[in-house]
Amino acid sequence: MNQTSRRKIEQLRICAEEEVETREDCFADVKLVHVALPEIDKDEIDLNTEFLGFSFNYPVMIASMTGGHPATKRTNKVLAKAAESLGVGMGVGSQRAALESSEQEDSFRVVRDVAPNSFIYANLGAPQLKEYGIEGVERVIEMIDADAIAIHLNFLQEAIQPEGNVDASGCLTAIKDVCEAIKKPVIVKETGAGISYWVAKKLHEAGVSAIDVGGLGGTSLAAAEIYRARAEGAELSEHLGNLFGWDWGITTLESVVECSALPFSIPVIATGGIRNGLDIAKSMALGADLCSAALPFLKPAMGTANADADTDIDADAEKVTEKIKEMGEELKVAMFLTGCKSTTELKEAEVIITGKAKEIAEQRGFIERLKRKKRQSGSQMRLK
Ligand SMILES: Cc1cc2nc3c(=O)[nH]c(=O)nc-3n(C[C@H](O)[C@H](O)[C@H](O)COP(=O)(O)O)c2cc1C
Fold first, then answer.
1. Which amino acid residue places its CA nearest to atom 14 of ligand 1?
2. By CB atoms within 10 Å of each CB, which of 77, 190, 234, 375 scores lowest?
3. Which of the listed residues 219, 227, 268 should we mutate to test ligand 1's pocket, taking the one with most ligand atoms within 8 A of CB?
4. Contact 242, 166 (CB under 8 A)
């Protein structure tokens, strides 16, 4: 078993068992304006959402988590079953382990086997693009017959790991090369520290098809490193994890605001701390096209049996399904009370930004741009 595989299973267990969520509830700074006369029938609300030419029954995706160790196959199977039964998308975890050792391919392939009709995206870290080139990207896409590839950025976590890959030079060029060579959509995703206006602009220029903001406010993979560092007696890593793991980064909300302020339009996924349908409604009202979450689905997916056992797959998939359905019901209430019949209309809902989020967006000069965009679409944004 190589180091990448070992790290993947440790990370999965730590995230399922330990405290790895930051305490930044960025969505508390956003309010949707209540519409006392919604003039719609709640039962007619349609959650169907188009994203990159694919149709989703809910504006929700299961974010990249796992694969890469034999014991992760079951979790991927459970998640893929839930995605397929509900008609939502799903990402696999980094496929680096499978590029290093073909024995690990199975733990990723299971996703496409179980979810033949779902939107599934492949996953590779930006530093691996330099190592494996276009051929590596083609291999990971082919491995799961992916509909898109997500290139993840996780330099915060890498900077904390003792063995982290901290050579970030040349990643933008590598991303651009992938966009030019690969026919499938290329998504670039952060993994907990967010994407700023300027990074989003550069990614757009490089040719990426969509941005997953992966902002601060949910799971912190950097915080997960604290537990691994402690177990290994890696004192400096533990210290760095504590210093940076809990609040470094751009929140999901701020990141969505920054991407929405761009002078062009690019599909945006809000990820990081999306925990209920109201978070989804707020993200979409600020301009996100889709939302995704990881941790809320991990615990139910690993719930009934121990992660290595191939039993109770259906029962655990049902739990994940229930969680997504619950988010859908919450979202419908928010849509009803803002008079929105569709997720497209939700993008035009009136929204108020307060507190720290307002202060940050103002200081960075994005409030005016976002207001202008909202005004152009006929909706409003207010500051309180
Ligand atoms: C156990 C676990 C493993 C993850 N592994 C990956 C990965 O391999 N590649 C990736 O792009 N993101 C990975 N992520 C990050 C998630 O895709 C997501 O961006 C992040 O967890 C924030 O969402 P959340 O707050 O809903 O958990 C992982 C997250 C978790 C919880």
1. 65
2. 375
3. 219
4. no
Q: Is the Cβ atom of 191 under 6 angstroms away from ligand 1?
A: yes
Query: Do 27 and 255 form a contact (C-beta atoms < 8 A)?
Result: no
Dihedral pair phi/psi, residue 340, rounded to 5°: -110, 125
Atom of ligand 1 nearest to the CA of 12: 1
Q: Rounded to whole angstroms, what are the CA distances from 126 to 114, 129, 168, 174, 236?
A: 28, 5, 8, 8, 25
- Residue 246 belongs to what H/E stretch? none
Task: Report the nearest atom of ligand 1 relative to the CA of 275.
Answer: 26
Contact 252 CB / ligand 1 (< 6 Å): no
Amino acid identity, position 244: F
What the block records as the tokens of 2 is 């190589």
Q: Which atom of ligand 1 is nearest to the CA of 292?
A: 26
Q: Which domains does the chain have, with CATH numbers?
A: 3-383 (3.20.20.70)
- Quote the CA–CA distance of 247 and 24 in Å, as a whole number: 7
96 lines ligand 1 (CB under 6 A): no
> In a structure prediction context, what are the per-residue pLDDT tens digits for the chain, which is 384 residues long?
788 899 889 999 999 999 999 977 889 999 999 999 999 999 999 999 999 999 999 999 999 999 999 999 999 999 999 999 999 999 999 999 999 999 999 999 999 999 999 999 999 999 999 999 999 999 999 999 999 999 999 999 999 998 899 999 999 999 999 999 999 999 999 999 999 999 999 999 999 999 999 999 999 999 999 999 999 999 999 999 999 999 999 999 999 999 999 999 999 999 999 999 999 999 999 999 999 999 999 999 998 666 567 788 999 999 999 999 999 999 999 999 999 999 999 999 999 999 999 999 999 999 888 888 777 777 776 655
Q: Is 64 in the pocket of ligand 1 (CB under 6 A)?
A: yes
